[in-house]
Amino acid sequence: MIFEKIRIFDKLFEFGIERKKIMSKPDSLGGRMKRLLGTGDGADVHFLVGEGDEQELLPAHKVILTAASDVFKAMFRFDAENAKFAAAASGTAKEVKPVEVPDVGVDAFKLMLAFIYADDLRGLNGDNAIDVLCAANKYDVDGLVKACMDFPKAKLSNVFVALVQARFLGQELLCELLGRDQLFVCGEIAIFNSALCWADEKCRQKGKECSAKNRRAVLGPALFKICFPQIPLGDFTENIVPSGVLTLNQMMSVFVYHSHPDAGLPELYPLKFPTKRRTAIKSAGDDPFKANGLIMLKIEKVSEFAREDENSRRHSEAVYIRGLPWRILSYLKIKSGRKCLGFFLECKARGPNWSCAGSATFRVVSQKKRKKDYTRELSRHIYSSKENSWGRPNVMTFEKLMGPNNGWYDAKNDTVMLAIDVTAEEPTGVK
Length: 431
Prior knowledge:
The chain is of the alpha+beta class. It has helices spanning about 1-25, 30-40, 60-70, 70-90, 105-120, 130-140, 140-150, 160-165, 170-180, 190-205, 210-220, 235-240, 250-260, 300-305, 400; strands spanning about 45-50, 55-60, 100, 290-300, 315, 320, 325-335, 340-345, 355-365, 375-385, 390-395, 410, 415-425. Helices cover about 40% and strands about 20% of the residues. The strands form 3 sheets. Strands 4, 9, 10, 12 and 13 form a 5-stranded antiparallel sheet that branches. Strands 5, 6, 7, 8 and 11 form a 5-stranded antiparallel sheet that branches. Pfam families: BTB (PF00651), MATH_2 (PF22486).
């Protein structure tokens, strides 16, 4: 009898523990959905997200995804029909492979799933808002698209980079970005160049040449969100006119605006571009006295560059770090009869005896999926009035740079992208 009571007590004790465990589970719907996502219990689809070493297999549930997105709904309906057809043809069930998603980052995809399952936006921040926006746009998750577009501008780490990344977005979202009065980029030319990057990507996706006509066609109404009248006339003539994106009448309307801003000739050359200057908002990434920054240089017409004389040069726009202007300097150098790419970091400050120590990571950026950047670290070096540039005079031969299997050279557009991540110390002797 005593042993029977002990046994019953043990059972009650175990039941109490199990009940406590059950009661400790999240009791809200959002909490339960988050737990379901976290455990992957009952998952009937897996996504292989990312590329290379950063790939990760993420479980999910089709019924939840289809309720949130018509893209997922169509995807899974198509997969189900194919599976039925394959099973009927072979008489056996076909093994279901994970859905490969190489063009979305793991963190961005996870955040999208968190939103779909539980409206959870806690992971959204200035560093990933545009990546998440690209994912949400790809899968047509409207609520998340709106959340990303409404993300506080002052918290975005780099809106210029955001605009470059916007090449993965649709035309409507590009219009939304370009139509904002507040963008912290270094002028309307930077916005125009970003729009061209977007247009070039869309041309490539459609298998079209990146010509002025095709760029203009894919930009559509987004072109008329750019404030061309706010670009200084000299810069407009040197940078915008040669692109060929604007028609003759559109260019004339800008020239007339500069000569008669209050009158113009609306009957002959109606101005279709906004004239209001964008509000300059500063973020941490735009602080000219920041300790680190990213510099980029897109080399156009690389095949011509490779045929030029020794010491032919290309410069990037300046990026201010520690209050000093830093640029990428690239030039052609001949070594042992072979033409090589020289790749330098240059800093030019005012004053006869200035100096600034800095370290940098040099990258030849991959322009193809599943190909890696060519990367070299340069340790601490002191830049000064006596020696204002430092780098690698012979990074690689142009033959290697333009090799079809490396991914660094975009043969269709004849371009190479160079980038340097710079970290600088406090300068001395600067006026």
